[in-house]
Amino acid sequence: METAQKVGGAGTVPAAGEISLGRPLIDAVKVEKSYGATRVLRGVSFQVRAGEIHALMGGNGAGKSTLIRIITGLTPRDAGDIGFASAKAGGSGPIIAVVHQELALLPELSVAENIGIVHAKSGLSQSSRRRMRDIALNALRLIDAAIAEEIVDLPARKLSLHEGQIVEIARALSTGAEVLLLDEPTANLTAGETAKLFSVLKRLARDEGIGIVFVSHRMREIRELCDVCTVLRDGVTVANATPLASLSDGEIVQQMGQSTHRSGPQLKRRQRSPEGTPVELVGPDSVRMEIRPGTILGLAGAPAGPTGLIDPLVGAGKGPGWRLAGDGFGESFPSPAAAARAGVGFVSGDRAAKGILSQLPIVDNVLAARRVRDKRRIVGAAERQECSDLVSALKLKAGSIWDLPASLSGGNQQKLIVARWLGLPLRMVVLEEPTRGVDIGTKHDIYALIREMADAGAIIVWWSTENVELLELCDVIFAFDTDGRPKGFLPDERFTEDGLAELTGMAA
Ligand SMILES: Nc1ncnc2c1ncn2[C@@H]1O[C@H](COP(=O)(O)OP(=O)(O)OP(=O)(O)O)[C@@H](O)[C@H]1O
Ligand SMILES: [Mg+2]
């Protein structure tokens, strides 16, 4: 790690072990970055101070992840300076730990190895392996004691997205770093795990003077956790380390250049079921769900998603329990392609592994569902127009539709896999966390589009870990507990956050 003497100026030198709060551990000055003709960071200055929890905010594509990658040296900058200083006397630069927006685990190594490898002193002797495993277990327990033992010896490739996220966070926490850079760490966590993470982070900032940078599109989390915020808008700093207490939600949203103004269809839940021939989902323990076309069914609770239900719905395998019955749907689809041709759309929660076609340009990604359905491949002028329309419907920020998806920010990649199902005549759409990483402004556009699809007669099956969004939009909610066991429908008179938390067994 680089060190820089210019940071902090000529203050008094703290005694050994003492922490000087408020001194910048990282001082980035006028950082510039362009990708081709796109100017991503246009002179961004950003400081991280000891003991603060600093929200880094901005819409999708504003430059947050790029700034984090530049600070850690993963991406080279075009211009600007970055200084590093340790708050601890005698230290060189601070140790910096990062949780990147997309998971970065070594798939063939075990969880213990992924977390503990940085602690292994010399080779991997028996005792050093045992020590590594202990470090990993302790770090995992900070976030989720229930799964720590279960996953510690598994190879990382066997983890669900949710478990992988916990491992990433545990690894960052275990390093004893003086600076933590967390790029949307909570996107795959349950409310309970998020609460645990927050209490750990608050303790680290308060008691140990750790400087923390936190990226999230959830205003509630920002308010609960952070002290100050820096807001980026199209690569420019529009608020710099401003105390959060001095800004209203509206002011922040406005600074980001977004609006939560809702246009289009009414986004309230429907009290009565629409007409139409129902489709039946039949689960284990004689659980039955009858859903009519036009209904938005929310699935809540299971932290990794109820795959046993979702997989058979989208032709991705016959789950152990659930099957589909009624109205010509048959038992299950032989493949996702067959499901797509029968009018069943699927937005996977694991966009990197199961959503994005990483070797194909944006245009092919957007048109993928149409290609499967119509068995066509060549992009003509009409299709180009269709692609552009879908891209603008979701405010998808892309350089060119011929670029690869890797050139998109996280939230914009998410919009890509949602866009491909828009405007198609669908009978059912299965959504796993469709708004994961999507900014505040576009979230409501996606909600409106989901409602539109339902109004056009599709059955919407929507799994989310964000109970609030389910409660806001779903007509009915079916709950699972944290182990994925079905718990039943949320009764109308209990259609609240408390009611849902109780039914899923996640009440605080
Ligand atoms: N490798 C790349 N090649 C080309 N353009 C890129 C590349 N990486 C990022 N960009 C562009 O830089 C801009 C900023 O991206 P960045 O990932 O920093 O956004 P972000 O603020 O993290 O957004 P999000 O909230 O969606 O994660 C985007 O418009 C993106 O298209
Ligand atoms: Mg990002």
Low-confidence stretches: 1-19
CATH homolog superfamily of the largest domain: P-loop containing nucleotide triphosphate hydrolases
- Strand order in the sheet with the most strands: 5-6-7-3-8-9
CATH architecture of the largest domain: 3-Layer(aba) Sandwich
Summed up, the domain count is 3
Can you tell me the overall shape?
Answer: globular
Measured as a percent range, the helix fraction is 25-40%
Q: Quote the beta fraction.
A: 15-25%
Radius of gyration: 24 Å
CATH top level assignment of the largest domain: Alpha Beta
Overall residue-averaged pLDDT value: 85
- Output the CATH topology of the largest domain: Rossmann fold
Number of helices: 18
Ligands in the model, by name, code or SMILES, are: adenosine-5'-triphosphate, magnesium ion
Report the strand count: 18
Question: What is the terminal separation in angstroms?
Answer: 41 Å
Secondary structure class reads alpha/beta
